[in-house]
Amino acid sequence: MTRVAILHPGRMGAIVGGQARAGGAFVGWCPTGRSADTARRAAAAGLTAVDDLRTLLDSSDVVISLCPPAAAERVAEEVAGCSYRGIFVEANAISPGRTEKIAGLMDAEVVDGCVIGPPPAEPRLARLYLSGAGAERVASIFSGTFLEARVIEGAVGKASALKVAFASFNKAAQALAAISYALADHYGLRAELEAEARFHDGFALARPGSLPGSAARGWRWAPESQEAARTLEEAGLPADFALAAAEVFERWAPVKDDFDVDLDTVLRLLQRPSAIK
Known about the structure:
Elements: E1 3-7, H1 11-22, E2 26-29, H2 36-44, E3 48-49, H3 53-58, E4 62-65, H4 72-81, E5 87-90, H5 96-105, E6 109-116, E7 126-131, H6 135-141, E8 147-151, H7 158-186, H8 190-197, H9 211-216, H10 218-234, H11 240-251, H12 263-269
Helix pairs in contact: 1-2, 7-8, 7-10, 7-11, 10-11
């Protein structure tokens, strides 16, 4: 039985851990310093609590880091400080350059990973893209689960680049739709814009009902968009779209993880107080 550690089981990490468990792995996590919400998510996913991080790492074949982008280096440094030498999966939404830097910190074999799609559960599938020498072994952990593991040929950094490329479009599209609705709302034209958007079914504009969920995730999406901007700049590409999206998500900070927030509140938060009629 492969033994997997999840650092740390947030909304995505807990479900990814649950899928590894469904694939036959033992999955542990360390509750030290984590919130009650994290503990509830881990328990719901069937993860086993191991009170000491070093003990968890010493008993794990594979460690998967899934945390807010800003914490990626700190988590990697904690693992490196425990002299972990198994497989470390850097699965955070960070730039290829940061992923390569983290790989340089580790004595472990580093696999680059990214999750694209909603948290995997029946009937929804998500994809886990992996690159690096140990990618095939990590992919085998999720065989037959709702997390479809796909190996990308090439070194560490490839999976991160794919995540940034996808997020650059997907998140910016949500931000742009929100701005469009906020502008229409400012002029009392939201119903008219929504009616017109129905003729463009493939656009994010046609799904205003998704915007409250985007707002609730804004605190995570802002740093991801900043990562996208950094990666675009490194590639010599315009980064302004990603930076603008990050500003949109930052304005949604007051509704962090509030998935019951209404659309009126979401749009109002995008306006500066002086512009609200």
